[in-house]
Amino acid sequence: SMPALHRPLDVLFRPSTLVAVVLAGEALAALLALSPTPMDDRLVTFGLLSFGIQWTTFGTLAVLHLLRNAVAHVPPQLLAWLCLALLLVITLLVAGGSWWLLRALNIPGEHEGAIFLLRTVALAAVAGLLALLGFQNHWRAQQLLLRAKQAELDALQARIHPHFLFNSLNAVC
């Protein structure tokens, strides 16, 4: 079992990561609200998008938190792809609920069935792939840092026992 500090999912539940997730979600909502849209009120568009994006991201994080012990032994690269798949499933659920709600409330806009769902999942896939790339870079950096610390420790141990090799050779001769 991996120590708590070296489990890949632990980075997702740090306060700095949660703040980054909220800010990235708000930035995405702002970009989408500023894009051409049939809705006249961009503030309402921003609010609806922000609501959906935050439900998706925190829903995904909540499920990952619940599953963190069950997936503790999954290799980091496979785990990253599983997280992306979970993000897309949660996105589909939130988008389906949003589509139903927008239709039920007769809110105008481009939310016509399968196209709405497909567009939403495609945006989540792009955002998820970017997050996957960020995770991969972070994980590699952590592994390099760990290897550097291990090499430093090995060098210090070699200094403490400088005559070990010499004494071993003498014992053989």
Shape: elongated
User: What is the arithmetic mean of pLDDT?
Assistant: 81
Strand percentage lies at: under 5%
Largest sheet: none
**Could you give the count of β-strands?**
0
* Sequence of secondary-structure elements: HHHHH
This entry's quaternary arrangement is single chain
Put simply, the count of helices is 5
Q: State the end-to-end CA separation.
A: 43 Å
Structural class by sheet pairing and helices: mainly alpha
Poorly predicted runs are 1-5
As a whole number of angstroms, the C-alpha radius of gyration is 24 Å
What is the percent of helical residues?
Answer: over 70%
Question: How do the strands and helices of this protein lay out in sequence?
Answer:
Blueprint: H1 15-34, H2 42-67, H3 76-104, H4 113-160, H5 164-172
Description:
The chain starts with 14 loop residues before the first helix and ends with a helix. The protein is elongated and about 90 Å long. It is mainly α. 76% of the residues lie in helices and 0% in strands.
